Amino acid sequence: MATYFTIAQQVFSALNGPANAASSNATEFANGLSNSTTTSSPPSITDLSSLATFLLSFGALADWLKLIVFGGALETLRRMAFSLYYKIIASFWITASFHEEDSSYDWMMVWLSKQSSWETAREVEVSTRSFGLNSSAIIVPGEEDDLSLLSSRKLAYLPSASLSYSMWYHRRYMTVTRVQTQTGYYGQKEERLQINIFTRTHRVLNELLLEAKKEYMAASEHSISIFVSDSNNSWRNVASRPKRNLSSIILDPGVAELLVDDARDFLESKPWYAARGIPFRRGYLLYGAPGSGKTSIISSIAGELALDVYIVSLSRVGLDDSALSELISNLPEKCICLMEDIDCAFSQNLNRDEPSTPADAPGGSEGAPPPPPTAMAAGASTSRISLSGLLNALDGVAAQEGRILYATTNKYTSLDPALCRPGRMDIHVEFKLASRYQAKRLFNQFYLPFDEDAAKKKEAEKATGKAAEDDDSGYNSADEDAVIDLDPTPSEKSDAKPTYFGTSHREHAPQLRPKQIAALAERFAEAIPEREMSMASLQGYLMTYKIRPYEAVRSVKEWVADEREARAKREKAQAAKIKSEAEAAVKTGSENSETVSTDS
């Protein structure tokens, strides 16, 4: 211990030497030459107290210590003062942040775009973003005067990034800042909206949030929001679609009512599920021929139940089991989760044409799509999702409750039984090719749109005994009881007109009464073969005669013949392809066997 103190003493003596140089020289001169051979040394340091006394004996060190203590105390007081100042200021402000991936961000951006203060702002961002709505919330002044401009996407003023704006809300001072930060390896930008309100309570903030949400919901009252996942496994609102009337979806009797009533009953049965310990989830598997209305009925149900649609693309690049589970768990409680073509989850093979399935085969029907091959070619699958990962995402521990799952497929027999079992897919509904009943309804819907209010009014007039004249279909007719002639003799004037296809202006179309439209619908349905054509193909055909019902009925038989011929050619080509592939496989197998026998 004494050794360390001695070393420290020598160090401080060396440091203190220049400071005491003058006094040492005077002492040496006074003592004379006799004392020049003796060297004076500081008192020895033996303990901590003597070390402290020794340190305090240096005047410069004492000044340093005083400066450190005083400076530290002053800096501490400064920080405390500023901290107290900021706390006092912060007590009069409320700060709210809204992130781009959250729905509240869209609410606030639409609300901000409606504020008149942006008309006088000096720096703004001009945008056509709709934030989940069909059109921006506010248009640029003067744009409404030009109809050609309104036909395109509307413009709106929005806060510029990284700038703060001042405005008033309910006589409260408020600042708005839109911040963009660069995140991720690829430099993706993330937006955040920050709002500061000069108030001491949350009442003003609550009013602002409710007002923004109500305005957004009112703007989207007649539409449904479509969400898709991005590369960061976050849900983003990408589009808004008008709600589709359920009566516009023409299916076999009872199918649409079954799906809507069951889904509505499920949404109202949360206490029932909780009381019995059953997971609050519901799944529907819609299978059948392409173009039979599977996706259309899902969109219509979403509008009927006021639910948003979250599309899960199982073929998305980078989507694996963990990412799929994260997406499903991040779904809101009440929504529709849509997985289209779930049979393609493990294969990217786009060729669905395989040998036909007999009509009496299990799960098959006349005109239904054929089953897939029992085994896929090696290397054909590029999906990173496994069957077990998909099953766990649907009803695993982390699976979201309250959501309604709709899965569609054209290959019902290719699905694993574990995927189709109750609890994952509770209801299976087959969508067949069009029947004559559907063809008749589709024709009536095209040329005699159903008006619910007019129908109720007509029923009321009939109940009161008032004679109600039949509503016009939009196509005038000379006489309701006139005979419908599908092959009228053309006049000299009509001979001069060229033959045309597609749609024409309404004023050139024949004008018919409802009974005449019904008679044409009967003839149209009689010409359609039962369960051979899809509803999509029938709709496509009628679209070419959108306002020409006579021509639609007159040409339908020829169209059916052309469709049958085209289908026969496709089947023949597919059969030839399958035969050639089989012959190639047999040839390859024989060559391999010959090689093995030669080697042996």
UniProtKB/TrEMBL annotation:
Any one GO MF annotation of this record: ATP binding
Biased composition (Acidic residues): 469-484
Record's subcellular location: Mitochondrion inner membrane
Main location: mitochondrion
InterPro entries for the chain: AAA+_ATPase, AAA_lid_BCS1, ATPase_AAA_core, BCS1_N, Mitochondrial_chaperone_BCS1, P-loop_NTPase
ATP-binding keyword on record: yes
Family classification: Belongs to the AAA ATPase family. BCS1 subfamily.
Residue numbers spanned by region Disordered: 349-379, 461-509, 572-600
Extent of Basic and acidic residues compositional bias: 572-584
Membrane topology: Single-pass membrane protein
Positions of the AAA+ ATPase domain: 280-435
Catalytic reaction annotation: ATP + H2O = ADP + phosphate + H(+)
Source taxonomy: Eukaryota, Fungi, Dikarya, Basidiomycota, Agaricomycotina
Keywords carried by this UniProt record: ATP-binding, Hydrolase, Membrane, Mitochondrion, Mitochondrion inner membrane, Nucleotide-binding, Transmembrane, Transmembrane helix
Chain coiled-coil ranges: none
All copies of domain BCS1 N-terminal, residue ranges: 68-249
Domain of life: Eukaryota
Gene Ontology CC: mitochondrial inner membrane
Protein name according to UniProt: Mitochondrial chaperone BCS1
Pfam families to which the protein is assigned, alphabetical: AAA, AAA_lid_BCS1, BCS1_N
